[in-house]
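Long-time lurker, finally posting.

We've been working with ATP-binding cassette, subfamily B, MsbA (Maribacter arcticus) and I want a structural starting point before designing mutants. I don't trust myself to interpret raw outputs, so I'm hoping someone here can both generate the structure tokens and explain anything notable. Sequence follows.
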Amino acid sequence: MDYFKKILRFAKPYRKYGYLNIFFNILYALFSALSFAALIPMLDVLFDKTKKVFEEPKYTDIGHLKDYLQEFINYRVTAYSGDDEMKGLVLVIGLILVLFLLKNLFNYLAMYFITFLRNGVLKDIRNKLYKKVVELPISYYSEKRKGDVIARITSDVLEIQHSFLSVLELIVREPLTIFFTIIIMFGISTKLTLFVFIFIPVAGMIISRIGKSLKKKSDDVQREQGEFLSIIEETLGGLRVIKAFNSESRFYKTFSESTKRFFNYSNILLNRQNLASPTGEFLGILVIGILLWFGGKMVLVDGTLDASSFIAYMGLAYNILTPAKAISKASYSVKKGNAAAERVLEILETENPIAEIDNPIEQTSFESEINLQNISFKYEDEYVLKNFNLTVKKGNTVALVGQSGSGKSTIANLVTRFYDVNEGQISIDSNNIKNLSKKSLRSLLGLVTQDSILFNDTVKNNIGLGKENASDEEIIEAAKIANAHDFIVSLPKGYQTNIGDSGNKLSGGQKQRLSIARAVLKNPPIMILDEATSALDTESERLVQDALEKMMQNRTSIVIAHRLSTIQNADTIVVLHKGEIAEQGTHAELLELNGIYKKLVQMQSLSA
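Top reply, 14 upvotes:
Generated this for you. Predicted structure of ATP-binding cassette, subfamily B, MsbA:
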């Protein structure tokens, strides 16, 4: 029930729809019971048992309500029909039709209003999940599979709607239908109704025992669904590699093993769930059978109950079966919903380790320097950076070079605060970046990575990501600085051309120049270039390098370089080795040292 309460918090904005649903469900439950009770006068007319009443009865007290209603109906039938029994029959049939019409009208209105609540909660949970997914740090997704996260936002949230939110409809309607029906059953025969109550706890115990293992089975199904969605996501992302290495059969085997497990888990779950309905129905019919025996004895032998009341009573008893079955199925749904809610709430309640302080500083400009002071950082157990110190003055270009795994990209991740340092601090203009709002920190930074991350949208919208509501002129100017304008205007629809998933309709160099244009449009004072040219051919590299040099003019830049020829003009080159600074200086100074940097330059010259 804890998960149920947490999910119900999302229903607060839609509570007016909940109240209207409850109101119409009360009316539905009342008229559902009355519609069966109205069978008694009809049967009395058919069996010629209607007592002639010529004077309108007087209401005395609640204790005699049943007798008053019976007398009043008989009075109306007598007054309307006179000696024509068919007129009386038409009257009571009309009464039954009106009651059933109202019952179904109120049922529709109750479902109409709960629809807004259910879909509203579904929308809000998905929105909150998406917002949380975007807010959580990049480190979170190194542990979670993307497909599993997608499964939680889609199928798990849908399961919550089908289970928990379906129960909202039943909380009022079905118990009240049973309640009103039982009241009328007591009014018809107290003895017979008490006899029914002996069997209800027994039926409840049997149904309860069936549902105990449903939560675990449902958890297995949803976890496995996340597994095969992850395989689909990885397959689509790496389709070229899969085809190039003839690995289709290997991935198919992994996927089919996952779907086989899903098949087995689903069979167990659904068969256990499907047991609820026939079990509930059989137990209900068993009670009806016993009622027929006991009630028939009261009619035929004891004479304590008339036939028309007994037939109506049986209709009322059967009227309990449908809501009772719905409640038993709802208990299974809640157990299934618990597993889905647990997975959804696990994301929503995950603490973000990259948290902002209360009242963070909103820094809007960069004035003097970036200072990395005695920073140490580890992704897991081993430190990637150890007691690292670096100062980047405003207007300077600092290049970071070194072997793979030396910690170059880690510095970019720490300055942008995708990760937080374990020790030491990073400051901008003497302000610790942990004290800045994440939005203001990242508004000071522009990022161009080795992998051009573009979106399935137009060229214009991909560049415009750098600045909200940018004009066409600003976008074109940014594209020109990035050496991208010429190839863009040659595309079929120019700036309105859709570039496909991840920009796959473009070449590597074209994608990279769009990434640079996006950073140029943002116009940040600090630029971080993470191996922006390492994956390009010579011609593309020349165009991109030219674009980068234009972009870095009058800006502070941290350049992570793989090709050393691209950073020879940097103000400072820092050579990293196993997370520490091995050498530092200008290109000429480092060559004179005759150390690691010179060896790297010579190795690249030979390979070229």
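Before you design anything, note these points.
The chain has a mean pLDDT of 78.
The radius of gyration is 37 Å.
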